[in-house]
Every structure is written in structure tokens, then in C-alpha cells.
Design goal:
Layout lengths: L14 H13 L2 E7 L19 H8 L1 H8 L2 E2 L11 E4 L4 H4 L5 H12 L3 E5 L22 E2 L4 H6 L10 H7 L3 E2 L9 E4 L2 E4 L5 H18 L7 E6 L2 E7 L16
Helix pairs in contact: 1-2, 1-8
């Protein structure tokens, strides 16, 4: 991984961590819209576009016309007017969330409202950094007293970034009261605690997407097969917002505004 990628202002995402859950949901019939703090094009870590890091799902995203359009034209997070419209919120990784989303009161408010409404909250690798400002119904950090995982200190050390990030994610999750559950470095690992789903590293992105989909199916079945809203994803300078196609029949766009 390029160490120069981890500097303020270069808050890139790791493409496979976005692409794998994206395709899990898209292929299951969910509409997905990418959102970011500033809107516009998603900044992707170039290292995630090379070698083994460029997974088939990432490759597919780069060559799918609809997905490319989504990557190039993200919705601003401030335009997500009603986070409770969506069925889930997902924060993919890359080092980006460690810098902008960890400090975002706006994302924290979106996550807090979504969680209070019983929506699914999910994140993978460095994505749980985006949960830092989120609160539970008790006013404590959203991860407090809940089992979580994320990019570990030893994984951060292995990629040579411990001195380049403003905090270590494992330490931060513990500081917020999270009960960190981890596996050996680089092994796929997904932790589910109620409606909170987290993955440890890039290899866990597919599993996080599948865990989200399973909960979405269960919630939909409980509603008699009717989707109540959508899904929100957010990472680094970028995030995702999406919804079950059935929810779009009310002529509402993913940003919660009348569809044009």
C-alpha cells in the first residue's frame, strides 16, 4: 500500500470494500447510490486497483456503466435528508474514514438516527472509524458494550501506517467501549451484534455484504415482503446510499428528495 495515500486530503477508499457489498445488494435487487461529504467523484486508492487487491467485484465496478456513473457522481451527505428512509447504512474502508468520516458530525447524526430507527449499521476494515461520532439510544457511543471488529493494530503495523494515522482503529473502538473480537491478521471475519455488522479487513467485505443482505431479507419477510426503505453506505470521501427497488415506487430518490 502506498504510504503517501495516507495524508490529510487524500482520503481514498479501498475499492473492493465498496464493490463487494455493492454487488451483493445490487444483484439482490437493491438500488444503491453513492454519497460523500463533498459529493462528486469517489477518490479510490490506486493501490486497490492493482494486483490481488483488484478483486473481480472491483473489476466489475470499473467496467459497469451504471456503477461507473455512481462512482463519478456521488450525492452529498448533507443531501441525505432522512436517513430513516433507508434500511441500512454501510461504511466501507480504505484509510479515508480515519480522517474525514471519523470527524464527521453529519455522518454521526445520520448513523445515530438510522440506528434509533432500528436500521442496519455496517462497516468493514477502516470503515468502523465512521462510527466514532454515532450514538446509541442511551447517548453512549454506538459501539459501546457491543461486539465489533475492524482493522487491527497488527494489521495497521503490517502495512506500515501506524505513524501516519491519527489514531489506531482497534484502540479507538475499545476506547469507545466496544468489545473487540478479532481473528488472525488478514483472515475473513464478520461480527454481528444485533443490527450492527462489522468486518475486520478487506477479506471480510463480501461477508459483511452477505450479512447485511440476510438481515434485510429477514426484515422484509417480517414486513410481509415489503421493503420499508433503503441502504446507506459511506467511506472516506465517499459513501453509499441505496434502497430496495420496491421503495422507489413512491417516486422518492435515494437522497430523500422527489425523483426527477
Amino acid at each position: 500500500m502506498n504510504k503517501n495515500a495516507v495524508v490529510k486530503g487524500q482520503v481514498w477508499i479501498w475499492l473492493s470494500e465498496l464493490a463487494e457489498p455493492y454487488w451483493v445488494l445490487k444483484d439482490a435487487g437493491y438500488d444503491v447510490t453513492l454519497a460523500s461529504p463533498n459529493g462528486g467523484a469517489v477518490p479510490v486508492d490506486p493501490v486497490s486497483l492493482a494486483g490481488d487487491a483488484k478483486t473481480p467485484e472491483a473489476e466489475r465496478m470499473l467496467h459497469d456503466d451504471e456503477a461507473k456513473l455512481v462512482l463519478e457522481h456521488t450525492v452529498k451527505l448533507s443531501d441525505v435528508s432522512d436517513p430513516t428512509f433507508y434500511d441500512a447504512v454501510f461504511v466501507p474502508g480504505g484509510h479515508g474514514p480515519m480522517f474525514d468520516l471519523a470527524e464527521s458530525e453529519l455522518l454521526g447524526d445520520i448513523l445515530t438516527k438510522a440506528a434509533a430507527a432500528g436500521k442496519i449499521i455496517a462497516a468493514v476494515c477502516h470503515g468502523p472509524a465512521g462510527l466514532v461520532k454515532a450514538k446509541g439510544s442511551d447517548g453512549l457511543p454506538l459501539v459501546s458494550s457491543r461486539q465489533v471488529t475492524g482493522f487491527t493494530n497488527s494489521e495497521e503495523e503490517a502495512v506500515g501506517k501506524t505513524k501516519m494515522v491519527t489514531f489506531l482503529l482497534e484502540d479507538k473502538l475499545k476506547e469507545l467501549g466496544g468489545q473487540l473480537v478479532r481473528k488472525p491478521d488478514w483472515q475473513p471475519h464478520v461480527v454481528t451484534d444485533g443490527n450492527l455488522i462489522t468486518g475486520q479487513n478487506p477479506a471480510s467485505a463480501q461477508g459483511v455484504g452477505e450479512a447485511m443482505l440476510q438481515q434485510l431479507k429477514e426484515k422484509r419477510a417480517a414486513l410481509g415482503g415489503v421493503a420499508s426503505g433503503g441502504v446507506t453506505f459511506s467511506a472516506g470521501e465517499a459513501g453509499l446510499v441505496g434502497g430496495k427497488k420496491a421503495a422507489a415506487e413512491a417516486d422518492i430518490s435515494p437522497a430523500g428528495k422527489p425523483a426527477s
